[in-house]
Amino acid sequence: MKKYFSFFRLRLVTGLQYRTAALTGVITQFFWGFMNIMVFHAFYKADPSAYPMTMEATAAYVWLQQAFLSFFGAWIEGEILYTISSGDLAYELCRPIHIYDMWFARSVASRLSKAILRCVPILVVAVFLPRGYGLGLPVSFPAFLCFLVSLTMGLLVMVALNMLVYGSCLYTISADGMRVLFASLSDFLAGQVIPLPFFPEKVQRILELNPWASMGNVPFRIYGGDLAGSEMLQAMVLQALWLVILAAAGRLLFAGGEKRTVIQGG
């Protein structure tokens, strides 16, 4: 376990050095956050009762989405893909480690380091914005604790999905197709474009069962009070279930891929 924690710590420290990139990301995310909220306000002014979430909950959803974009963005680490395509995977296979566990730890640390640099300024500014435009306080302290637990599980689900992409690349010549497909599915099914509660009820019920819905969709709605009681517990149990399923599938995929991987024709 110590060696994987070392990989985690090294990647985390390395990621925290890219402060300029984080600053430009914060500016971009502020722009997108304000733009999305302005669009939602235009719709809510027409008929506030026609929408499944209050404007306050929707604004909280948008700002949390921007603050934790590094957690749930459909980003694939180019360094890992290069390790597979260039043949450097041979060096990893020689180490007394499990590649799945090492890359999992690195991926978590990479996303966490980006979030640490970006989320604080976004959350601080969003809290001081006017009601309906900014990020209000959580509905209750127990809900806030559930939000933190759900946020952590959502991050792990996202990384577990990433690991499936990396594992599938062990079987292919090029990773471009998997990377594009993964990004396209993630943005739509995770509610990054339109929050899942805004879909028609029947479509929403189907979408909420997919693993992408167990990422940001659940913790953000818990924070704003849109998910509570038994529905919240069911959503969090589904998060844990998807984490177990995806992690098990990823390990099986890696186990088979490592045995059949061909490096430099050898």
Specify the overall morphology.
globular
Which series of helices and strands comes N to C? HHHHHHHHHHHH
Radius of gyration: 19 Å
For the termini, the CA-CA separation is 31 Å
Uncertain stretches: none
Strand proportion: under 5%
Largest sheet: none
- Helix percentage range: over 70%
How many domains comprise the coordinates? 1
Mean pLDDT: 83
Number of beta-strand segments: 0
Total helical segments: 12
Structural class of the helices, strands and pairings? mainly alpha
Structure description:
- It is a single chain.
- By secondary structure, this protein is mostly helical.
- The chain has one domain.
- The chain is 73% helix and 0% strand.
- It contains 12 helices and no strands.
- It has helices at residues 2-15, 19-46, 55-67, 69-72, 78-86, 89-94, 99-127, 141-169, 176-189, 201-207, 217-224, 229-260.
- Helix 1 packs across helix 7 and helix 2 (19-46) runs antiparallel to helix 3.
- The mean pLDDT is 83.
Features of this protein?
mainly alpha, 266 residues, single chain
Lay out the secondary structure.
Layout: H1 2-15, H2 19-46, H3 55-67, H4 69-72, H5 78-86, H6 89-94, H7 99-127, H8 141-169, H9 176-189, H10 201-207, H11 217-224, H12 229-260
Helix pairs in contact: 1-7, 2-3, 2-7, 3-7, 3-11, 7-8, 8-11, 8-12
